[in-house]
């Protein structure tokens, strides 16, 4: 079996991830109970920590799928421990996605795991490895939106509802953007095994710039408006209105002067 080549220590959950998970739990509790003196700080820490947790699970899904597809090297690289510091460009794996969220409320990927594709046979396996990450974002989005489409928010504090709505928005944007067939993103990884060798060689030099290209494109007002129009429509279908996500983003950016529309009692 492919898992036999990995030691138990290679699959042990990292204390770093457990620490991030603890921050998520504590700040989520503080947001729910109103314990925090400044609600915005609690929302910022809760959403940021939960977002990093989702990044770790995204990359874990890639690595775990690769392990069962034939790449037993992922264990020795630490990818199965959920430790974000083990990813390629560890600093960018944490800082860059958070910067994207602060600058535009967009869930863009940052972490990366190096898969030894030569160990894997079969185009379907290669496609599934690439799809596993964004499918995790889809699952995370379902969890975040479930209280809304199940009408289970009676008695839920406004601050927590706003934070959950904003976190759902990040997961939806991450899923959509990751599935774009742009070199360097998972969507291209899904279709790449089915392309001819010549096409892949021509596209390969552009892969390092794919993420930056998408981010730059989203700064174009017309593109940004169209993109978030689709996102808002999806969220609305799941029971989350634009007011909730707007207030979640406003609370998240606690350092800015509040508009007054999203006041939350501490």
TrEMBL record:
<protein>
    <submittedName>
        <fullName>Membrane protein</fullName>
    </submittedName>
</protein>
<dbReference type="InterPro" id="IPR044537">
    <property type="entry name" value="Rip2-like"/>
</dbReference>
<comment type="similarity">
    <text>Belongs to the peptidase M50B family.</text>
</comment>
<keyword id="KW-0862">Zinc</keyword>
<keyword id="KW-0472">Membrane</keyword>
<keyword id="KW-0479">Metal-binding</keyword>
<keyword id="KW-0812">Transmembrane</keyword>
<dbReference type="GO" id="GO:0046872">
    <property type="term" value="F:metal ion binding"/>
</dbReference>
<keyword id="KW-0645">Protease</keyword>
<keyword id="KW-1133">Transmembrane helix</keyword>
<keyword id="KW-1003">Cell membrane</keyword>
<feature type="transmembrane region" description="Helical">
    <location>
        <begin position="127"/>
        <end position="150"/>
    </location>
</feature>
<feature type="transmembrane region" description="Helical">
    <location>
        <begin position="206"/>
        <end position="228"/>
    </location>
</feature>
<feature type="transmembrane region" description="Helical">
    <location>
        <begin position="90"/>
        <end position="115"/>
    </location>
</feature>
<dbReference type="GO" id="GO:0006508">
    <property type="term" value="P:proteolysis"/>
</dbReference>
<keyword id="KW-0482">Metalloprotease</keyword>
<feature type="transmembrane region" description="Helical">
    <location>
        <begin position="16"/>
        <end position="35"/>
    </location>
</feature>
<feature type="transmembrane region" description="Helical">
    <location>
        <begin position="162"/>
        <end position="185"/>
    </location>
</feature>
<keyword id="KW-0378">Hydrolase</keyword>
<dbReference type="GO" id="GO:0005886">
    <property type="term" value="C:plasma membrane"/>
</dbReference>
<dbReference type="GO" id="GO:0008237">
    <property type="term" value="F:metallopeptidase activity"/>
</dbReference>
<dbReference type="InterPro" id="IPR052348">
    <property type="entry name" value="Metallopeptidase_M50B"/>
</dbReference>
């Amino acid at each position: 079996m492919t898992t036999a080549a990995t030691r138990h220590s290679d699959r042990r959950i990292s204390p770093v991830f457990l620490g991030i998970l603890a921050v998520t739990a504590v700040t989520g509790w503080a947001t729910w109970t109103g314990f925090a003196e400044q609600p915005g700080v609690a929302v910022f820490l809760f959403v940021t920590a939960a977002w990093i947790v989702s990044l770790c699970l995204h990359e874990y899904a890639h690595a775990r799928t690769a392990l069962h597809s034939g790449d037993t090297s992922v264990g020795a690289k630490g990818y199965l421990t959920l430790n974000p510091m083990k990813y390629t460009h560890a600093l960018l794996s944490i800082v860059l996605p958070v910067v994207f969220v602060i600058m535009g409320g967009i869930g863009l990927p940052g972490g990366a795991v190096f898969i030894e594709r030569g160990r894997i046979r079969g185009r379907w396996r290669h496609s599934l490895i690439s799809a596993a990450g964004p499918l995790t974002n889809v699952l995370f989005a379902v969890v975040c939106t479930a209280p809304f489409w199940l009408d289970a928010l009676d008695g839920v504090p406004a601050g927590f509802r706003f934070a959950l709505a904003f976190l759902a928005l990040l997961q939806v944007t991450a899923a959509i953007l990751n599935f774009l067939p742009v070199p360097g993103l998972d969507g291209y990884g899904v279709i790449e095994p089915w392309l001819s060798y010549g096409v892949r060689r021509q596209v390969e030099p552009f892969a390092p710039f794919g993420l930056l290209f998408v981010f730059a494109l989203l700064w174009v007002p017309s593109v940004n408006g169209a993109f978030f129009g689709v996102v808002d429509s999806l969220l609305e279908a799941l029971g989350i209105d634009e007011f909730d996500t707007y207030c979640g983003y406003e609370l998240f950016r606690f350092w800015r002067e509040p508009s007054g529309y999203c006041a939350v009692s501490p």
